[in-house]
Amino acid sequence: MVDNIGIVDTRNIISAVTDTYGIDLSDYTFTILKRRLIHAINTFGSHSADDFCDKIRKKAITADDFLYTISLEVTEFFRDPSLWRELRDKYISEISRATDGRIWMPCVTSGDELFSLAIIIAEAGLQGKIKIDANCPSNKHIELINKGGNYDQKKIEVSEANYTRYVGKTQFASYYTLSDNKAVMKPQLLDSVTLEKQDDILNSAITRKYKMIIYRNKLLQFNIPLYDKVIHKLVDSLEVGGYLVIGNMETLEYSEASKKLQVVNATEKIYKKRVD
Amino acid sequence: MNDYKAIMIGGSAGSFQVVSRIIAALPANYPLPILMCLHRLKHIRSGFVEALSIKSKLPIIEPHDKEPLKAGRIYLAPANYHMYIELGNRFSLSTEDVVNHSRPSIDLSFFSASYNFKRKLVGIILSGANKDGALGLKSVTDNGGLTIVQDPKECQVPTMTTASMNATKVDYVFSTKQIIDFLLKLA
């Protein structure tokens, strides 16, 4: 069991990943990346950072498995219930009335927020009127989410409490089935969702503009230069008048792209695009 | 003594009154940043800073992700995020899974702060009901920093301080008053 790695180990792994998979992790937040790499080292049964580098360079670990393993978790359904109430009460119906009411959720990993969004749309009776384009870093994420995910009891307990605070229309338990003490969300919640792989948000072309982009607690994993590029990409992908939603302790203030946005809800971190 | 760059405090059950007393004793021109990771309810985002601020002469802030660390401020780990200090003295936050049943985790905050500040960190563990913080305080020792625990005899719940003393050889076991006197000497 490896419980710590140093800065040199981290750099060596970053090099191996770049050389082998063409994925650049050099501008990721050091502490978070280090912890994810330690998790990956142990998940893949390596006994040291050097051993892990060897496995990567020998392609004993696929890029897909690597991306699946190091992806940052989002930890609860309906995390920050007041945000989901706000979306339900003030934004979802507006988006449904648009000619092409689409919401983009890049970098979906555990699927918690995707299912949360799908539930509020379903409870508003707007399923089919709002399309969700969601991207996952790996095919493994997509396969798992398409099957309804696989959530442990602890997460479900927290999520049920969140759902109660959100004040949903039913019981959270009505949205999942239990199998071997794991919760599997009802896959039909995703009927209006298109899930595609996107291992790097910056590498994809902007093919359409969105009414809303939900990108909560994802900017945490980037250092400021990469964070700035990602925010530019998000803002460029929004329609004028469209909304960007980030995590409640995230900020856009270190990016020039924030000048194109106005704050519409400072507490829930909802921004509206002013200009193109 | 004046070589220290930051003070990191961890606490849980029974620590609120102690932290309040410490904060109230610090002058408005206290020169070092104080980083606090206190166990708190995950779903209640507001109220804690306000409660702690009542007697504080220093601004108390829940840092946003990537916010630069500044002297003369007290930083409180926000609800439902782990709080790290990155090289370059910026905060980073994380939604990773709970550690020791906690998010924020005291261990994780101490690990990053001790890695960043090395021997220039003072780590303090107060009253608490689980062992979160024990390995964090050990990391302060391992990186050459100075370690203090609240005297277990004074703690409402001594589990955290006792676990810390079992995990590492602490430099001082202090009462709340002694902790305050020590911090004032650093100014």
Explained architecture:
- The complex is a heterodimer of chains A (276) and B (187).
- Chain A has 276 residues and is an alpha/beta fold.
- Chain A has two domains: 7-70, Chemotaxis Receptor Methyltransferase Cher, domain 1; 81-273, Rossmann fold, CATH 3.40.50.
- Chain A has helices at 7-21, 30-43, 49-57, 63-70, 81-97, 112-123, 139-146, 153-166, 224-236; strands at residues 102-105, 131-136, 176-179, 182-185, 193-197, 210-214, 238-245, 261-265, 270-273.
- In chain A, the strands form two sheets. A seven-stranded mixed β-sheet of chain A has the order 5-2-1-6-7-9-8. In chain A, strands 3-4 form a two-stranded antiparallel sheet.
- The N and C termini of chain A lie far apart (50 Å).
- Chain B is α/β, with parallel strands linked by helices.
- In chain B, 52% of the residues are buried.
- The radius of gyration of chain B is 14 Å and the shape is globular.
- Chain B has a single domain (6-186), classed as Methylesterase CheB, C-terminal domain (Rossmann fold, 3-Layer(aba) Sandwich).
- The chains are: A alpha/beta (276), B alpha/beta (187).
- Chains A and B meet through α2 and α8 of A and β6 of B.
Approximately how much beta-strand content do the residues of chain B carry?
15-25%
Task: Indicate how many domains the architecture of chain B comprises.
Answer: 1
The radius of gyration computed from the alpha-carbon positions of chain A, rounded to a whole number of angstroms, is 19 Å
Based on the structure given, which CATH architecture of the largest domain in chain A is correct? 3-Layer(aba) Sandwich
Q: Classify the fold: give the CATH topology of chain B.
A: Rossmann fold
Q: Give the CA-based shape of chain A.
A: globular
First CA to last CA of chain B: what distance? 9 Å
The CATH topology annotation of the largest domain in chain A reads as Rossmann fold
Content of β-strand of chain A: 15-25%
Could you say which structural class the secondary elements and strand pairing of chain A correspond to?
alpha/beta
Order of helices and strands of chain A: HHHHHEHEHHEEEEHEEE
